[in-house]
Structures are given as structure tokens and as C-alpha cells.
Amino acid sequence: MELSVVIPVYNSERTIGPLVERLQSCITQHSFEVVLVNDGSADDSEAVCLQVADKYTNVRFISLRRNFGEFNAVMCGLNHAKGQYVVIIDDDFQNPPEAILTLLTKATVGNYDVVYSYYAQKQHHWFRNAGSWLVNTLTTYSLDKPRDLYLSSFKLIRREVVEEIIKYKGPYPYIDGLIFRVTANIGRVEVPHHSRTEGRSNYTIRKLVALFLTVFIGYSLWPIRVFTMIGVVLFGFGLIMGTGLWIGYITDLINPAGWIIVCWAIGTASGLQLLFLGIIGEYLGKLFMAYSGLPTYVEKKQSNRHSADELQ
After folding, report:
1. Residues 6+ apart with CB under 8 A from 32
2. Beta-carbon-side half-sphere exposure of residue 110 (alpha carbons within 13 Å)
3. Structural contact between residues 17 and 61, judged by C-beta atoms closer than 8 angstroms
4. What pLDDT digit, counting tens, does each position of 82-97 carry?
5. Per the database record, which ranges form the Glycosyltransferase 2-like domain (predicted)?
6. pTM given for the model
């Protein structure tokens, strides 16, 4: 199987059928499968997906018992995908299915592990654009993401990277975070972006906050280290200020007022507390990362041309 197309389905009874039909007509030159994952839709998406799976032999369908969220649904699809390349695409037709070939060409020509799409002009609501900007800015610092890389949900992933991603067994998968744990061989290509043809976006403040916390806490020790550095700065400033006040007092150069002493004491104590909390947090963070299922290393290839006897 050359290509797998994973589609997380949520309340898209009117679009999922036409989307699969378009896929069948535009990817004729490649062997491919479509993996539909119904993420607890409240409409008739499950029935429509069943009809589509019965109609096409290259369509696989998995229905989740409740709504687990987009990333969990995508993770389910990745676990069932068999293609050498896996494309993740939304069910709302904002990404044209024909653009899958653009991603595939970019990956094969450039030999990339992952190819992200980006848009000359996004057709999302302003709120989703603002949320995307916030998450992209956060991941730039917490995951060492290149600044010019837009983390689109429409992307292609090589089979070897997918095998590493699905080793994660935690309840809070963040696909992009897992990708950056596995590879830095990432490309980008411009594709069209269309307005929604049906329904409305499921992007809400609650989901934005949940995604922000997942990225901020679940895939990096960066937050802990920020507060540790704040503690170091406050404590260091307190030591310098305290030394200056003491020297000034014993040499009769200054006579510090009481409120200055209070501010110095509070600042120094706060810095010391943040420093100790940061150290404790570093230990806890290391334990969390150790048990999160994230890989310690990822092998690209092996070479073993000589047997053990020959080496002896």
C-alpha cells in the first residue's frame, strides 16, 4: 500500500461521502486506502461512513464510542493505516483532496519524513487563526519548531515516522509534538485553502485552552525552566541588593528605609522559593517525560555488513 488517507470524522454527514468520492477519482495513479475514524459524531456520520465503507473496498471505518478529540481520533487512524505514506486531512473540504498529490510529490522528491501544508491565504475564522498563531508561537519555543513552519492539520508522514508516533500510549497525544520528537527532516509546501462548504468549525475556546495546556505542559520542560530562571534572577538580584544595602549601612553611606528592607526580603524569599520549586519541578518533569512514552532516541537505519566472527 503506497498511501493511506486518515480522516477524523466529526458531524460531517454531508461532506464525508463526497470527500471520499473525490479521493477515489483524483488518486487513481497510486494504490491507496482511506481510513475513516468517527469521533463520536452526534449526527448520522457513522451511518454514512458505513455506507461508504461498503461501497469502496479500499475504505476502512472505525467508530469510537464517544468523542475523544481530534488528536486521539487521528492517533487511532495512524494505528490502522498501512500505507508507506500517511496523509491526514480534515473532513470539511477546506483542503482540496487533489493537494494530497502535491504533498506526496514534495515528500518523494525532497526525501522528507514529514511534509506540512501552508496557505497563501487561510479561510478560517479569525478566532481559529488567532489560536493557530498562539499555538505555533508556543511550539516554536517549546518544541524547537522552525519559525517559518506552519503546523497545519493537513500533512503527510512517512511510514517509519508513523511507527514511532504510534508507540505513544498516553491519553493526551499531540501529533505535532510527537513528530518533532522523532524527526527534524520536515518540508513544507503551499496548497490552496477553501472556505467551509458545510457546517461550522468545532474550534472552541475550551479546545484551544486544552490544546494550549497539552503543548505547554505535556511535551516540554520549558515552562518549569522559565520559572526556575525567574527564581534565579530574583534571588541573584536580592543577593546583590542585600550586599549593597549591608555595605552602605556599615559604611554610613546610606540609611535604607523600612519599606526598602521589606521589598528586598520579599523579593529574595520569592526568588528562593521559585528556585527550589523549579528544582523540584525539574525532577518531577523528568519523571513525567520518562513515563510519557516519548522515545529516547529514534533509529533511521542500520548497517551490519560483517558478522561477529569476522569482526573477531
Report:
1. 1, 2, 3, 4, 5, 23, 58, 83
2. 18
3. no
4. 999 999 999 888 888 9
5. 4-165
6. 0.73
